[in-house]
Specification:
Elements: H1 2-7, H2 14-26, H3 31-41, H4 45-58, H5 62-76, H6 85-101, H7 111-117, H8 119-126, H9 134-142, H10 150-161, H11 169-178, H12 182-189, H13 195-204, H14 208-218, H15 221-234, H16 237-245, H17 248-261, H18 263-273, H19 276-288
C-alpha cells in the first residue's frame, strides 16, 4: 500500500510529496521548500517519513530503495525526536534481502516473506548455498545480537560458516568493530587463518601488542616490520623499547632495521640492554665512519 500511495500517478500522498521534495533539494530547487511546507502544514511529516521507510522494504531495485531512504532521512531532519529504530532496522533488513537476492545465493524473497520466515530460518537456508557472499548477509544480523555474549556469538558464527572457501572472518570482525563490539571482533579474528587480514584490523582497533604477537606467529617479516613501525609511532620511546624487550623476534628485526636506517637508535637500544660489548663495537664502527 505504501508503494502504491507513493508511486501512483499524480499522487498527493505525504510520502510522494516528501520523495519529490528530496529530489528537488538535490537539484537545489526552491520547489523542495514548497513540497515540504505542504506536508508540514498538514502535520503529516512523520507519516511521510514512515511511508517512505515502509515503501523501501517492498521495492526490489536498490536504487529505488536508496531514493526512498534518502527521502526518509531528509524528512527526519525536520522532525523533533523522530525515533530512528524503524529507519535503522529497514536499512539492515534491506542489506540482508539484497544479499540473498544476489545470484550467488539466489533466494529472491519479498519483504513480507522475509518477515514471516524469520532471520534464523533464513540463515540456515542461505548459508549452505552461498560461497563467500553470505558474509554480507550474516554480518549485519549476528554481530548485533545483544542478548548473547561475545564468545557465544563468535562460536555461533563459526559453527555456521566453518572453513567454507571464500569466507572472510576479518570482514565480519570489521563489521562487529563498526557496531562497537571490539571484544567480539577480536574473538572472530581468532578464526581468520590469514595473518595479513588479522593484523591490520587489530592495529585499527588499537590492539597493537596483540597485532605484534599475531605478526610474529605468522613468520612474515614484512608484517612484523609493519607492526613494529606502527608501535614506534604510537608509543613513547621508553614504552616502545619495553614492548620490544618482551618480543625477542621483533627486537632482533628492529635492530636490523636500525643498523641500516637509524644508527643512533641502535645505540639507545644497546644502552637499554646494558649490552656493553655491542655498544663498544658501535662506537668503534662510528669512529671508522
Amino acid at each position: 500500500e505504501a508503494s502504491q500511495e507513493i508511486f501512483k500517478i499524480a499522487s498527493m500522498a505525504p510520502g510522494a510529496l516528501l520523495l519529490e521534495a528530496q529530489k528537488e533539494y538535490e537539484k537545489e530547487s526552491q520547489k523542495a521548500d514548497e513540497y515540504l511546507r505542504e506536508i508540514k502544514d498538514q502535520k503529516l511529516l512523520p507519516e511521510a517519513v514512515s511511508q517512505c521507510i515502509e515503501a523501501a522494504g517492498y521495492e526490489h531495485e536498490p536504487d529505488t530503495q536508496k531514493s526512498l531512504l534518502r527521502a526518509a532521512s531528509f524528512g527526519k531532519c525536520f522532525i523533533d525526536k523522530f525515533p530512528p529504530e524503524s529507519f535503522v532496522r529497514m536499512c539492515q533488513d534491506l542489506r540482508v534481502l539484497n544479499a540473498i537476492r544476489d545470484y550467488q545465493i539466489g533466494i529472491p524473497l519479498t519483504f513480507t516473506q522475509y518477515k514471516r520466515l524469520t532471520i534464523e530460518v533464513l540463515l540456515d537456508r542461505a548459508l549452505p548455498v552461498g560461497d563467500g557472499a553470505e558474509t554480507s548477509l550474516l554480518a549485519p544480523f549476528q554481530v548485533q545480537q545483544k542478548d548473547k555474549s561475545d564468545e557465544e556469538v563468535a562460536h555461533a558464527i563459526n559453527q555456521k560458516l566453518g572453513d567454507t572457501p571464500g569466507i572472510s572472518y576479518s570482514e565480519i570482525a570489521a563489521r562487529a568493530y563498526d557496531c562497537g563490539r571490539t571484544e567480539l571482533a577480536i574473538k572472530l579474528l581468532e578464526y581468520e587463518p590469514r595473518s595479513g587480514e588479522q593484523v591490520p584490523l587489530l592495529l585499527k582497533m588499537k590492539r597493537s601488542k596483540l597485532a605484534l604477537s599475531k605478526a610474529i606467529e605468522s613468520g612474515d617479516t614484512d608484517l612484523v616490520y609493519t607492526v613494529v613501525l606502527h608501535l614506534k609511532n604510537e608509543l613513547n620511546r621508553g614504552t616502545f623499547f619495553m614492548t620490544l624487550q618482551n618480543q625477542p623476534v621483533a627486537l632482533s628485526l628492529y635492530r636490523q632495521f636500525c643498523k641500516h636506517q637509524e644508527r643512533e637508535t641502535l645505540k639507545d637500544l644497546y644502552n637499554q640492554d646494558d649490552n656493553h660489548q655491542e655498544l663498544g663495537n658501535f662506537h668503534v664502527h662510528s669512529s671508522y665512519s
